[in-house]
Design a protein that fits this description.
- The protein is globular.
- β11 (about 420-425), α17 and β12 (about 440) form a beta-alpha-beta unit.
- α6 crosses α7.
- The strands form 2 sheets. A 6-stranded parallel beta sheet has the order 3-2-1-4-5-6, sandwiched between helices.
- Residues about 525-590 have low confidence and may be disordered.
- Helices cover about 45% and strands about 10% of the residues.
- The relative contact order is 0.09.
- It starts with a strand and ends with a helix.
- It is built from 22 helices and 12 strands.
- The chain is an alpha/beta fold.
């Protein structure tokens, strides 16, 4: 099977959030070939280069979203009219109030994609005076959002610039006979711009689309927009566009794989069909923590450990105040904070503020008149002499604490579970889903509750040992790389069975490859009782019809075949959920 892996600012670059799990996926599914289509986010990312790629990566094609990409094309009168009509639909759908404009948004988006594929020139058109006038009319039209009414010319120009960058995948040369039209499945590593090539591959060639979101792209946009130096109308326009794009991606994806129930709820609220959702937890390497998790040393019983990035969302201020209460009840208690190297002025300022608060709350203490004073709170970097490896940091204490106020999938919590450590966490993001009943969970921004939970575990070594053992068993069952690969291996096979391969499998010398395709690719008959609707990828007929249409052919007898009785099944136009996909916490964790 040939997979088109679509990334945005991640794999195969040496930096990026999706780099690690994409690399594990590609290396773990070595029986498949991967074509990587990567969007880069900065010149620095490009300069740092790629990671070493395995041999199953047959092709890598890249495109920047940060540099101007003017192809030098301009439109004639007829093409200007085409652009104007499609862009009016897109702009009206973005500016309109309410959530019932998905069809108009899709018509405008795919119309621009068809124009870009045939004529190019989308870069100049989206930055033209005509585009600005269309945006102005859409913002001031009756029924437009109240926030965008106040937009001015600089706001239109700023939004047009951001829109052109987001829509740049529409103008790429990735959709020819040597591009995404030759893959059997598109797997987008996130929503947003990364999924755009997958939408076009499905429209042009009928290639099924799989979308994986370990952090919901729309949620990440909302969080990042709060700190951006943009006017309120521009933020409203960008948020509306991303919301429309997310709804279209969820509508066209054959399967969507959120990384946890928290992300799944976000996707459902944004219009994702529950039947197409399959929870697949991120796979993590358990072997690097095996020595700590299986060892006899349970760490210093009086030490609390925190590990993560130094940033306000981790709420170290509340943790320090909570530890002040812990010290009153347990004078021997210590708090060790292990952080990654600090980058950026904001993180450095926050770290300095936390260090000053720790010095104020906990003056240096000495055991007697002849000893050197010591602070019970220490700020350390991972990789330092006390913790040269990440596992060493978890091994220093008996209880691991997470105090965040915002959290997606808590990676540090899973690492602590692999190490067999009892944990105290705040109830944010996917914490409850991850921890289950193997740790203590308290409300966020509640230092008193956080302190009480820590004191309870520090005073009860048997409970710490029991919870740590249960946490390690749960992590090994649900959050390993092997579990992640097994889930995607099954999803790949299921999707290709509903959109069979029509490409001849050959080796490097051009000779046919025996058993190059799964058996489902050669099964006769139709998979559903009636033909799937337009825009679906639900069976052999839908995949064949769309690909034949792209080639200008019609499958003979397609309209007259009668489905065998065994093929009577779901007729919803998407992949039917298995019984294990009923969204209960236990079954979601094992998806």
């Amino acid at each position: 099977m040939r997979i088109g892996l679509l990334t945005d600012g991640g794999y195969p670059y040496a930096t990026g959030e999706s780099r690690l799990w994409c690399d594990r996926l590609v290396r773990g599914l070595a029986q498949h070939d991967f074509d990587v289509y990567a969007l880069s986010r900065s010149a620095q990312q490009v300069e740092q280069g790629w990671i070493q790629l395995p041999p199953q990566v047959r092709r890598v094609r890249t495109a920047p979203l940060w540099a101007p990409e003017d192809d030098g094309h301009t439109y004639g009168r007829r093409d200007r009219r085409r652009f104007l009509g499609h862009f009016k639909e897109l702009a009206a759908a973005v500016c309109a109030d309410g959530d019932d404009h998905r069809e108009a948004f899709a018509e405008g988006l795919y119309g621009l994609a068809d124009l870009a594929r045939e004529r190019g020139g989308l870069y100049s058109a989206l930055r033209s005076e005509v585009a600005v006038r269309v945006l102005e009319s859409a913002c001031r039209a009756p029924g437009a959002r109240r926030t965008v009414h106040a937009a001015t010319v600089p706001d239109y120009l700023m939004f047009a610039d951001e829109l052109e960058r987001t829509l740049r995948p529409l103008s790429l040369d990735w959709y020819g006979d040597d591009g995404l039209g030759t893959v059997d499945l598109c797997h987008a590593a996130s929503g947003g711009s990364a999924a755009l090539p997958g939408l076009l591959a499905k429209r042009f060639f009928g290639v099924p689309l799989l979308v994986t979101e370990y952090g919901v792209h729309l949620r990440a946009h909302y969080l990042s927009a709060d700190g951006a130096e943009l006017s309120a109308p521009v933020r409203a326009l960008l948020a509306a566009f991303q919301r429309r794009l997310a709804a279209e991606v969820y509508a066209q994806a054959s399967v969507i794989t959120p990384g946890n129930a928290h992300a799944r709820r976000w996707q459902e609220k944004c219009g994702a069909d529950r039947a197409r959702l399959r929870t697949v937890h991120p796979g993590m390497e358990a072997d690097r923590f095996a020595a700590v998790g299986e060892g006899a040393d349970s760490g210093d019983p009086h030490t609390l450990v925190w590990i993560g990035r130094i940033e306000p969302a981790k709420d170290l201020i509340a943790l320090l105040h909570a530890f002040a209460e812990v010290r009153k009840a347990e004078p021997q208690a210590r708090l060790r904070l292990f952080g990654a190297p600090v980058h950026g002025a904001e993180a450095a300022t926050y770290l300095a503020h936390c260090q000053a608060l720790a010095a104020q709350l906990f003056p240096d203490e000495a055991a007697d008149a002849h000893a050197v004073g010591d602070n019970p709170v220490s700020f350390e970097e991972i990789g330092g002499p006390e913790a040269p490896e990440l596992a060493d940091a978890y091994a220093t204490g008996g209880v691991v604490v997470l105090s965040s106020v915002v959290e997606g999938f808590p990676i540090s919590l899973v690492e602590a579970m692999f190490c067999g450590r009892a944990t105290v966490s705040t109830d944010v993001g996917a914490v409850v889903e991850v921890i289950g009943g193997t740790g203590l969970v308290v409300p966020p921004r509640n230092p008193r509750a956080l302190a009480d939970a820590c004191i309870a575990l520090l005073r009860d070594p048997e409970r710490r040992e029991r919870l740590g053992a249960a946490a390690r068993a749960r992590a090994l069952e649900l959050f390993t790389v092997e579990q992640n690969l097994a889930a995607f291996r099954g999803i790949y096979l299921e999707l290709i069975s509903h959109s069979p391969v029509r490409r001849e499998a050959v080796d490097e010398d051009g000779a046919p490859v025996p058993f190059g395709h799964p058996a489902e690719a050669h099964m006769q008959g139709r998979w559903t009782g009636r033909a799937a609707g337009p825009g679906t990828a639900s069976g052999p007929e839908s995949g064949t019809a769309s690909r034949s249409a792209a080639d200008g052919r019609t499958a003979p007898g397609a309209a007259h075949r009668k489905a065998p009785r065994w093929a009577d099944g779901p007729r919803t136009g998407h992949v039917a959920p298995a019984a294990a996909d009923i969204p209960t916490p236990a079954k979601e964790a094992r998806a």
